[in-house]
Structure prediction request, 172 residues.
Amino acid sequence: MTTPRGSARFGVEEHGKRAARSTDVYLPAEGKEEAVVCTGCKATFWGKRWFNEGDEGAKFPAGHLPHKGVCPACQRMKDNNPAGVVTLSGDYLLKHEEVILNAVKNVEAKARAKNPLARIMEIGQEANVLTIRTTDEKLAEKLGKEIYKSHSGKLGLQWSQDEGFVRVNWTR
Ligand SMILES: [Zn+2]
Prediction:
């Protein structure tokens, strides 16, 4: 099969900028000193950040009974409102789909170990295009950059500053 895509230009195109300060509406108000355990994923909130279940820092000090709540990642999943959308396409992708999907899962696992709010909501496939929706914009950016680093191709990143949202397109 011959297609003009074989001669596609390689490179990275970036539009917009990641917001210096997160304006994520899903993050709890600063300065709240409360303990929360997520009813969805069991992540815990304490000392201004979220921890995975079982993390060292996830232990609540004695006397603090955690509230039941929903973490921002589970809330985004409920609302079906991703912070990042990554689309992967091209003939090369079709031939290397398994390897690339494995890389996607590895990147997610590493990111999630550090930040329980960084996860993939879903991976969809439609007409030879893979779409990965994430709960975290940095995870979406990382996915695009890792694939680009290992497989070259063409990467485009488009940040929407107001909403803390990034659209990532990779093709090869
Ligand atoms: Zn959760």
Residues 7-23+81-171 form one domain. Residues 97-114 form the longest helix (18 residues). The beta strands are 11-15, 36-38, 44-46, 49-51, 67-69, 84-89, 120-126, 129-134, 154-160, 165-171.
